[in-house]
Amino acid sequence: MKKPFNPFVINTYQGKAYFCDRENDLKMLISHIENDRNVVLYAWRRMGKSALIHRLFEELEESKNFETLYIDLLATQNMQEAIQTISTAIYEKYGKTETGINARIQKLLASIGAVISFNPLSGSPELTLGIAQTKQPELSLKALGEFLQSRKKRIILAIDEFQQISDYEGTKAEALFRAWVQQIPEVRFIFSGSHRTLMEAMFTEKKRPFYQSSQLESLQPIPLEAYSKFIVEHFQKAKKNIKPESISKIYTWSRGQTYTIQLVCNHLFANYQTVNYTNVETVFNQILVQQQSVYANFQKMLTRTQWNVFKAIAKEEPLQNPLSKDFLSKYSLGAASTVSTALKALEKLELVIKENGNYLVHEVQLARWMARL
Question: Can you give the pTM of this predicted structure?
């Protein structure tokens, strides 16, 4: 990997040197993998799940005992797109040779009705699936699984945003995936997701196919002490300075969310030699102003009552009792029953979450912007 210009990476995993802590989480995941347990890794959005998976994969690949494969289902809407995404990942990992496409991969893709074409703009190969595949997705999954299981090394397959399959229409996607996992017992799975409610339901409800099939691990914020050490070290390496009080302010404002901490530090590192409170406030404001046009659209997406409740929670968070008389009166929200209905809608959309008995706006930066309205 090329060394990043800014050590506070915000887009992709750039190696362990730019990855903060998570040592206990890493040890826990390695223990699950080495002891043949499948894992459910879930947390609120932008807490660093995907980066942790790539950090784990780097460790496992270095051991020479495993091969790793990362699948992201976020953009998929049905089983065909899911299988196409899995097939593409397998092709990218195993299909290319110095002389062309691996013959075994060609045979595999042909068996599931996949066709390789080339993007006319980029020239890069793309996979598409034929109509026949849609009718029998279980056969395509079986063929893909048999290939993975035939590898000499143990395969670790991470499926990110796994909760997406619960929204597929017209198929029993959860049952199909559960059957697939059972068909390839030598492959270890990491099911990752950022919709905590859906992920918990998929693996804890008795009537669901994945009930008690994997170890549930909830990813928590990196402790302030560990993050402070990480931030100070990178500033000092560049002969820059940042005080512990400023880091504490960043951590609190970001609610411990990995992405937002990284984003704030990225801006501070880029623009200041010595960081003070005023600089931190300036960056907070710059970030919110940059997102203003996006955040303003939320009001158009919600009913008036939903928006008013949403905004009030942002101003008050962490909020313990959204139906209390004091809260309803302070923000002129009307009847408790009306607010309760709006709150349920906001929770269903995961715009509002409940953490440790408190109600919060899910997206930290959005919460900070709304609190200023």
Answer: 0.91
